[in-house]
Design a protein that fits this description.
- There is one protein chain.
- Helix 4 packs across helix 5, helix 4 crosses helix 6 and helix 8 packs parallel to helix 13.
- The chain has 13 helices and 9 strands.
- It is an alpha+beta fold.
- Helices cover 35% and strands 15% of the residues.
- It has 3 domains: 80 residues; 162 residues, Nucleotidyltransferase, domain 5 (2-Layer Sandwich); 67 residues, no CATH class.
């Protein structure tokens, strides 16, 4: 039976709340003083001299209100007196238009590092507010379609690339007759996310062209998250088969002392006869899979399946005179990909791997509730800043609710 895990924060209900309390909550959670100060020194705000703080608040308002364009943000400011007051524009005549908001967004692109500092500050607040935040992490990427036609010879977004997700192989290991049927193609970028799998909140991110491999992005993503600190060390890092590699498993186990929860790619010929099957479970000389019997420090312990009544040995005599049966101890550090600290045949591994669905829900909220489904910007840096704004609002929502002790109130949620 498939059980849908309820998220801790109901972002859909939050964004539909009436009034502007939720907007004020988000603005209060965002520590943007350093950014605002840097922007105010540039004297760029146009003929009317729009307030930098007001422009920042208006842009965040557009994210919270799920505006599809800057023109829609300007219309909200014109018709809603309360929103104008919250953003710092008391009169209609002082409200910025679409062009002014566009210029402000372009200026934000020049301050990407300051925006990232705000996001990192939110993550640190969540570590202090939420018990166990960061112990179980999930990693994955999602597509961001470029605001450009990828079929043209001269593309309007030169940084975007074609990417594909899906499988080129069927379950038996053979090639499909039509590979295109199993692949989803898009022209644009990939948003790589590392999220807390329990609270379903982002910890760090990266944006790459769509043709970049997920496997190669795990190391820089973990380095950016700074999870090697004592207060940020995870217990498990969960990913799909796209992250399966010897290097990634060794990095997670050896570099961060965490359990890699990543399915192994069961390719034809991946089995090692008389040693282990494709999943890494050791086999004895007669071909029987041995039974996992617990972990002994840095070793995995396996016992004879014949003695445990889980198979019949084809040999006439047992390989040991002991009633306990043959015992095999495997050092994890030698090959954490085949023999991870939490073996793939265990219930614990399956329970942890089910948490991976958390990142899919985070991706869905970023796209459908916070505007990444359709972007109207071109260029890598602009897409990074646009992604950052969505992540900032999501993190600020969570911080605001946690600070106001709304966790119990939103524990039973829609997905």
């Amino acid at each position: 039976m498939y059980i849908v895990q309820a998220p801790l924060f109901d972002f859909e209900a939050f964004t539909k709340e009436k009034g502007n309390k939720h907007l004020m909550m988000v603005l209060d959670a965002l520590d943007a003083e350093k950014l605002i100060s840097a922007l105010e020194k540039e004297h760029w705000t146009g003929r009317k001299g729009y307030s930098v703080r007001g422009m920042w608040s208006a842009l965040i308002c557009g994210m919270v209100r799920q505006c599809e364009s800057l023109a829609e943000v300007a219309r909200i400011l014109q018709r809603d007196k309360e929103v104008r007051t919250v953003c710092g524009f008391p009169c209609k005549d002082e409200v910025p238009g679409e062009d002014a908001l566009g210029r402000f967004l372009k200026k934000l692109v020049e301050h990407e590092k300051l925006l990232e500092e705000i996001f990192e500050g939110l993550v640190e607040k969540l570590r202090k507010l939420l018990p166990g935040f960061g112990l179980k992490l999930a990693v994955d990427s999602t597509d961001i379609e470029a605001y450009s036609n990828g079929y043209r010879t001269h593309k309007s977004d030169p940084d975007a690339r074609w990417g594909a997700k899906g499988s080129k192989h069927n379950h038996s290991g053979g090639e499909k007759d039509n590979k295109e049927k199993d692949l989803y193609w898009w022209f644009g970028y990939k948003l790589h996310l590392l999220v807390d799998a329990i609270y379903e909140l982002p910890i760090t991110f990266m944006v790459t062209p769509a043709n970049e491999s997920d496997t190669q992005q795990l190391k820089p993503l973990l380095e950016k998250a700074r999870i090697d600190r004592p207060e940020a060390k995870p217990e498990a890092i969960i990913g799909d088969k796209g992250y399966d590699s010897g290097q990634n498993n060794k990095l997670i186990y050896g570099g961060y002392s965490a359990s890699p929860i990543i399915p192994i790619k069961e390719r034809k010929g991946a089995q090692l006869p008389d040693i282990c099957n494709a999943k890494g479970t050791p086999t004895c000389g007669c071909g029987l899979e041995m039974v996992f019997w617990g972990r002994d420090g840095n070793y995995l312990k396996y016992r004879c399946s014949h003695v445990l009544g889980k198979g019949v040995c084809k040999f006439l005599s047992l390989c040991t005179d002991s009633n306990y049966g043959y015992v095999l101890k495997l050092p994890i550090k030698n090959d954490p990909r085949r023999h991870p600290p939490v073996p793939r045949e265990t219930r614990k591994w399956k329970r942890l791997y089910r948490l991976r669905s958390a990142i899919e829900r985070v991706n869905s909220r970023l796209k459908d509730l916070l505007g990444l489904r359709r972007i109207t910007l071109r260029g890598m840096v602009k897409v990074v800043v646009r992604s950052l704004l969505s992540l900032l609002v999501m993190g600020a929502m969570a911080v605001g609710m946690a600070q106001r002790n709304r966790l119990k109130e939103v524990r039973s949620l829609v997905t």
